[in-house]
Automatic annotation (TrEMBL):
Molecular function per GO: hydrolase activity
Domain of life: Bacteria
Protein name per its UniProtKB record: Cof-type HAD-IIB family hydrolase
Keywords: Hydrolase
Species for this entry: Streptococcus caprae
Length: 271
């Protein structure tokens, strides 16, 4: 009944140690041998997947940057990209500069970060990503200048505040019918162009592959998985998902530390 399964990364395919368990890797291999498509559906940039793709040789496609980029891993090509409009990227840069907000900007599949922000990442409550950014981000002296210089070519912009209250206030200020915004982490806001989200990315990928959206499964745990869980033929929430996401899902799996993704494959994709 189902031909494609799309897995979120953090909190879903990755366990709490940011690893893909050997059992999960084997289940993905079995799904591929059965002729199924296993897809990554993540808010990450392509550069942030470098440590994982060698362990996933059977995964051909990715819905990246929260749906702003569709990527063919095997042919190393971008199938589709939807950047944030120039004027809105400039507005985000101005807001972030005034508030000394940490910015992660994604351009052509690469993440960019200000060097001083990485050095003081604890202030922005995302220190658990320090190692990832040290490995994968291109560090610049002034991220606000970088965003202004490359406005119109940025697929996603993440803003990390120093408090949750500041984040919530920023959310109200930056709301626009030309932007998609999701609250993330303790202090973050993630921005893409309006209409860009993982669900839209799944729909576009299905069109490219000639698949019905009804023949897809989506698995996730957080707010940026909301649309794809609703859009897919079957939506599965991890046991560690937020209550809101569990309410949206058709079924709830074990947690990301209990190989919940293996159950998604064995109990639903291969049945």
């Amino acid at each position: 009944m189902y031909h494609l399964i799309a897995f979120d990364m953090d909190g879903t395919l990755l366990n709490s140690h940011k690893e893909i368990s050997p059992t999960t890797q084997e289940a993905i291999r079995e799904a591929s041998l059965a002729g199924k498509e296993v897809v990554l559906s993540t808010g990450r940039a392509l550069s942030e997947l470098a440590d994982y793709l060698p362990d996933l040789p059977c995964v051909h496609y990715g819905i990246l940057a929260s749906g702003a980029v569709l990527c063919d891993f095997q042919n190393q090509t971008v199938l589709q990209k939807t950047p944030i409009p120039i004027d809105l990227a400039l507005n985000l840069a101005t807001y972030a500069r005034q508030g000394q907000v940490m910015v992660l900007a994604m351009k052509d599949g690469q993440g960019y970060l200000q060097r001083s922000h990485l050095e003081t990442i604890e202030r922005f409550h995302v220190s658990h990503y320090r190692q990832l950014y040290e490995k994968t981000a291109v560090l610049v002296d002034n991220i606000y200048d970088f965003v202004e210089e490359h406005a119109g070519d940025l697929e996603k912009i993440n803003l990390y505040h120093q408090t949750a209250n500041a984040r919530d206030a920023g959310y109200e200020v930056l709301l626009s019918d030309r932007l998609a915004v999701v609250k993330a982490e303790q202090s973050g806001l993630e921005f893409t162009a309006a209409g860009v989200h993982k669900g839209a990315g799944l729909d576009q990928l299905c069109d490219l592959l000639g698949l019905s959206i009804a023949a897809t499964i989506a698995v996730g745990d957080a707010d940026n998985d909301r649309e794809i869980l609703v859009q897919a033929g079957l939506g599965l929430a991890m046991g560690n998902a937020s209550d809101d996401i569990k309410t949206l899902a058709d079924h709830i799996l074990p947690t990301n530390d209990q190989d919940g993704c293996v159950r998604a494959i064995t109990d639903y994709l291969l049945q």
